[in-house]
């Protein structure tokens, strides 16, 4: 009997559009001969499974089951494909933990921690991983951007503290009214805003996952943005060049890989994650920017590019992720 796998898509945030793009890749590449696959769309309006005729069946949230023609379908595992809340911030993970259903992503605690950018860099810094100086602003306590000038060196990045895909992110080159506008823009996406010092250097990103108990670092990608930084347009609308594998010295490549595996271990990660780094050539230092615990799987996404260079098909990769969560 084939294991029944639910893959969840959608979500409650602006990142849902990325989730739906990833869903297309999942549906094309998950091994249907090996698994029974059910796509579950999780939205603010409800959780649904759509039949071939277009009818929607609501998920029973008491046990995460669906009823099809008087048969109750329960699931052996869940492949999490939701970017943003509630799939990347630990909420769904906690729900599945209570139901004792295994899933392919990091656990509840790691997902919640890494979704909060400020807490992520605090833990990384305390573990000997280089990070940028930053401060965290809370909407209910925030009064004026002037206080930032005293504490940070410009340029700075201003971004929502919780979330991904670079939505609501800005670069501010000097203390000015632009800082206030950037903070206001970020507060539209989140009630916490991270302001961090810009680090000059080359941007690298690398996927890391675990298969058969072994932590595997994928080939490194260098991201060269055509915009001022790697924003939403650069990520998803072609305004960047992504060079995979990155053209770097072996020593730098090893530094990125070693740090990526260290991050995976420090944060007790599971499944596939993607870590963004900046390498400052003058200092010869690598800085961790952030961790994505549900990295994009669309055709424009970086992890599929890296898997191709490694020589893995997406079918092999998704099978490895599912088998790891089923048997560990």
UniProtKB/TrEMBL annotation:
<keyword id="KW-0133">Cell shape</keyword>
<dbReference type="InterPro" id="IPR016185">
    <property type="entry name" value="PreATP-grasp_dom_sf"/>
</dbReference>
<dbReference type="InterPro" id="IPR000291">
    <property type="entry name" value="D-Ala_lig_Van_CS"/>
</dbReference>
<dbReference type="GO" id="GO:0008716">
    <property type="term" value="F:D-alanine-D-alanine ligase activity"/>
</dbReference>
<feature type="binding site">
    <location>
        <position position="290"/>
    </location>
    <ligand>
        <name>Mg(2+) 2</name>
    </ligand>
</feature>
<feature type="active site">
    <location>
        <position position="165"/>
    </location>
</feature>
<dbReference type="GO" id="GO:0005737">
    <property type="term" value="C:cytoplasm"/>
</dbReference>
<dbReference type="Pfam" id="PF01820">
    <property type="entry name" value="Dala_Dala_lig_N"/>
</dbReference>
<keyword id="KW-0573">Peptidoglycan synthesis</keyword>
<protein>
    <recommendedName>
        <fullName>D-alanine--D-alanine ligase</fullName>
        <ecNumber>6.3.2.4</ecNumber>
    </recommendedName>
</protein>
<dbReference type="InterPro" id="IPR005905">
    <property type="entry name" value="D_ala_D_ala"/>
</dbReference>
<dbReference type="GO" id="GO:0046872">
    <property type="term" value="F:metal ion binding"/>
</dbReference>
<feature type="active site">
    <location>
        <position position="15"/>
    </location>
</feature>
<keyword id="KW-0963">Cytoplasm</keyword>
<keyword id="KW-0460">Magnesium</keyword>
<comment type="pathway">
    <text>Cell wall biogenesis; peptidoglycan biosynthesis.</text>
</comment>
<feature type="active site">
    <location>
        <position position="301"/>
    </location>
</feature>
<comment type="similarity">
    <text>Belongs to the D-alanine--D-alanine ligase family.</text>
</comment>
<feature type="binding site">
    <location>
        <position position="276"/>
    </location>
    <ligand>
        <name>Mg(2+) 1</name>
    </ligand>
</feature>
<keyword id="KW-0067">ATP-binding</keyword>
<dbReference type="InterPro" id="IPR011761">
    <property type="entry name" value="ATP-grasp"/>
</dbReference>
<dbReference type="InterPro" id="IPR011127">
    <property type="entry name" value="Dala_Dala_lig_N"/>
</dbReference>
<dbReference type="GO" id="GO:0005524">
    <property type="term" value="F:ATP binding"/>
</dbReference>
<dbReference type="GO" id="GO:0008360">
    <property type="term" value="P:regulation of cell shape"/>
</dbReference>
<comment type="function">
    <text>Cell wall formation.</text>
</comment>
<keyword id="KW-0464">Manganese</keyword>
<dbReference type="InterPro" id="IPR013815">
    <property type="entry name" value="ATP_grasp_subdomain_1"/>
</dbReference>
<dbReference type="InterPro" id="IPR011095">
    <property type="entry name" value="Dala_Dala_lig_C"/>
</dbReference>
<keyword id="KW-0961">Cell wall biogenesis/degradation</keyword>
<dbReference type="Pfam" id="PF07478">
    <property type="entry name" value="Dala_Dala_lig_C"/>
</dbReference>
<keyword id="KW-0436">Ligase</keyword>
<feature type="binding site">
    <location>
        <position position="290"/>
    </location>
    <ligand>
        <name>Mg(2+) 1</name>
    </ligand>
</feature>
<feature type="domain" description="ATP-grasp">
    <location>
        <begin position="121"/>
        <end position="323"/>
    </location>
</feature>
<keyword id="KW-0479">Metal-binding</keyword>
<dbReference type="GO" id="GO:0071555">
    <property type="term" value="P:cell wall organization"/>
</dbReference>
<keyword id="KW-0547">Nucleotide-binding</keyword>
<dbReference type="GO" id="GO:0009252">
    <property type="term" value="P:peptidoglycan biosynthetic process"/>
</dbReference>
<feature type="binding site">
    <location>
        <position position="292"/>
    </location>
    <ligand>
        <name>Mg(2+) 2</name>
    </ligand>
</feature>
